[in-house]
Design brief:
Pfam families: HTH_1, LysR_substrate. This is LysR family transcriptional regulator. This protein is of the alpha/beta class and 295 residues long. 42% of the residues lie in helices and 24% in strands. Among the domains are: 76 residues, Winged helix-like DNA-binding domain superfamily/Winged helix DNA-binding domain (Arc Repressor Mutant, subunit A, Orthogonal Bundle); 108 residues, D-Maltodextrin-Binding Protein, domain 2 (3-Layer(aba) Sandwich), CATH 3.40.190.290. It is built from ten helices and eleven strands. Helix 1 packs across helix 2, helix 1 crosses helix 4 and helix 2 crosses helix 3. The chain starts with a helix and ends with a helix.
């Protein structure tokens, strides 16, 4: 089983679909099916079972996927180590970044870093912060950028913070906020953390309970801050969003979220990594570059 086979098995596990896995591999479905059949012949076991609901892995298939993931991680570590022996800033830098950061902040940063280190290639995964943490725990990425104060017990660096705003089209009476229509941002559920609330949600709830004895009147549940903002622009209610999503051009009324103690509530963006990976020249140079841009 070679590196391509390991990647194939990983995609197959993630997609649970031959068609989607083949698309990610840029091959035809028959070609993918043929390679799976060859692996099944080599190992003498069935790897997948097809049904009307899609494709699922057999117990033997799940074991091979687990082995494939470990093999890919070890292969990447071996490649990193060989380059580090020469102390060369080259190779592939594997990054995991929160979706918003990946959309608005990361592209110019990578362009600048590429100009400084032209031999570096990038492998970027844009996802939710808990997913980035999981990738770092599994050593599938070198550096992560997350939004929010999630627990991480190795190296971290605060890149920036942002105020949290209550936004509305017109002036608000904060004392009457529980009676006003609230456009609520509903966070996606993460499989690995389905029973946990995000630090951001917990902070908002703590602020609310500090000030009000009754719950908000939620009239809309939406899955993006941009949608929250557009609903507010139409005068359909108020919302609570990170300040980075609001600009003066939006023409909205904003009120900073402040604790009763007078302390403003902010949302932090962190760069997180393992201290041990700084032994790799490519990681050390990128971390120092990011610190020079923010700290």
């Amino acid at each position: 089983m070679n590196e391509k086979d390991c990647i194939m098995l990983q995609y197959l596990a993630e997609e649970q679909s031959l068609t989607k896995a083949a698309e990610r591999l840029y091959i035809t479905q028959p070609a993918l099916s043929y390679r799976i059949q060859q692996l099944e012949k080599d190992f003498g076991v069935s790897i997948i079972v097809k049904s009307s609901k899609g494709t699922r892995l057999t117990p033997e298939g799940k074991y091979l996927v687990s082995y494939a993931k470990k093999t890919l991680i070890e292969l990447n570590k071996m490649k990193d180590h060989i380059l580090s022996l020469r102390n060369e800033v080259k190779g592939t830098l594997r990054l995991g970044v929160a979706s918003y950061y990946g959309l608005y902040k990361l592209p110019p940063m990578l362009k600048m870093f590429k100009e400084l280190c032209p031999d570096v290639q990038f492998n970027v995964t844009s996802a939710l912060s808990p997913e980035i943490l999981e990738l770092l725990h599994q050593e599938e990425i070198h550096v992560g950028v997350i939004r929010g104060d999630y627990p991480w017990f190795d190296a971290r660096c605060l890149l920036h913070d942002e105020h949290i705003y209550i936004i509305s089209k017109d002036d608000m009476d904060l004392d009457n906020l529980p009676n006003l229509p609230h456009i609520y941002y509903k966070e996606p559920r993460i499989k690995t953390m389905s029973s946990m609330q995000s630090p951001f949600s917990e902070t908002i709830q703590a602020w609310w309970h500090e000030r009000y004895s009754s719950p908000p009147t939620i009239t809309m549940w939406v899955d993006s801050y941009e949608t929250c903002k557009e609903m507010v622009k139409q005068g359909l209610g108020y919302s609570i969003v990170p300040g980075v999503f609001v600009t003066p051009q939006d023409g909205l009324k904003t009120v900073d979220l402040v604790r009763k103690s007078g302390e403003p509530i902010k949302r932090n963006t962190w760069m997180i990594y393992r201290e041990s990976t700084l032994e790799l020249a490519i990681v050390d140079r990128f971390v120092q570059f990011m610190k020079s841009q923010y700290v």
